[in-house]
């Protein structure tokens, strides 16, 4: 089970932020296409960064606490999941602020802006 | 390039993307900074686990500090290299910039967020997503 150490941290992020979708009705899952379009260029950029950093030896991963599954260029599958989970949590958090406070985020049509 | 240099470059490109290229101006909004305060708290928590337990290790050649994770000092905050804060900022802000940008273009602008479930009875709150209004 130890090799799921990195995944356990990701699971904490999913649970810790995921309740906002239901408790605050952030409605991000119902805007899945928009989320996919938003995260795609970010994942692409950060996978390149990750590949470079791993190749240069900037950082390494504990083989005992990662699954050892890679997605190419020596990038652990946990990293790809990280680049999906963290942006998801970030969007949930921004929409949670909008849900509770009603503050604008800049996507509002001109006539709806206060 | 070192991680320090790349992290600074990442933040710079993110700011330019927001203020100049896409003009989403997220970094000028109260809503963003409120969200970011929450995000950075949890980043320090979760990244502290990843770096403190050495699930991820860094070489001293690429960062301000050394490769040895200490709780605070030597270029580290909560065991993580300070560069990770810049990395996280770039990752999170770029995502939110695109999120705003697509919404502004009308891609799934709705259903809007809110209201929280505990405000169900509050008729004075903003209407629920997709509803035409009271009654």
What's this entry about, in short?
The complex is a heterodimer of chains A (114) and B (135). With 114 residues, chain A is mainly α. Chain A has helices at 5-23, 32-56, 77-101; one strand spanning 59-61.
Distance between the first and last residues' Cα of chain B = 61 Å
Beta strand count of chain A:
1
Tally of distinct domains of chain A: 1
| Silhouette of chain A | globular
Keywords:
heterodimer; A: 114 residues; mainly alpha; B: 135 residues; 3 helices; globular
Characterization of the model:
The complex is a heterodimer of chains A (114) and B (135). Chain A has 114 residues and is mostly helical. Chain A has one domain. Chain A is built from three helices and one strand. In chain A, helix 1 runs parallel beside helix 3 (77-101) and helix 2 crosses helix 3 (77-101). Chain B has one domain. In chain B, a hairpin with a 2-residue loop joins strand 3 and strand 4 (80-81). Helix content of chain B is 48%, strand content 7%. The termini of chain B are far apart. In chain B, helix 2 crosses helix 3 (82-104). Chain B is globular, with a radius of gyration of 19 Å. The model of chain B has no long low-confidence stretch (mean pLDDT 92). With 135 residues, chain B is mainly alpha-helical. In chain B, 35% of the residues are buried. Strand 1 of chain A pairs antiparallel with strand 1 of chain B, so a sheet runs across the interface.
């Amino acid at each position: 089970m130890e090799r799921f150490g990195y995944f356990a941290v990701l699971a904490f992020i999913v649970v810790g932020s995921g309740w906002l979708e239901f408790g605050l009705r952030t409605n991000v899952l119902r805007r899945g296409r928009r989320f996919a379009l938003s995260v795609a260029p970010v994942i692409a950029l950060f996978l390149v960064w990750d590949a470079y950093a791993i190749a240069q030896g900037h950082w390494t991963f504990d083989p005992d606490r990662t699954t050892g599954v890679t997605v190419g260029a020596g990038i652990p599958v946990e990293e790809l999941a990280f680049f999906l989970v963290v942006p998801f949590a970030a969007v949930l958090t921004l929409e949670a602020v909008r849900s509770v406070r009603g503050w604008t985020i800049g996507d509002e049509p001109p006539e709806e802006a206060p | 390039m070192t991680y320090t240099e790349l992290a600074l470059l990442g933040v710079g490109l993110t700011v330019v993307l927001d203020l100049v290229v896409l003009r989403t101006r997220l970094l000028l909004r109260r809503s963003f900074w409120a969200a970011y305060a929450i995000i950075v708290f949890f980043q320090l928590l979760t990244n502290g686990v990843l770096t403190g337990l050495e699930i991820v290790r860094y070489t001293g050649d690429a960062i301000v500090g050394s490769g040895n994770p200490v709780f605070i000092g030597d270029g580290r905050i909560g065991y993580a290299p300070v560069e990770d804060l810049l990395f996280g900022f770039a990752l999170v802000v770029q995502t939110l910039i695109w999120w705003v940008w697509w919404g502004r273009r009308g891609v799934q602008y709705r259903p809007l967020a809110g209201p929280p479930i505990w405000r169900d009875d509050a008729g004075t709150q903003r209407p629920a997503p997709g509803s035409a209004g009271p009654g």
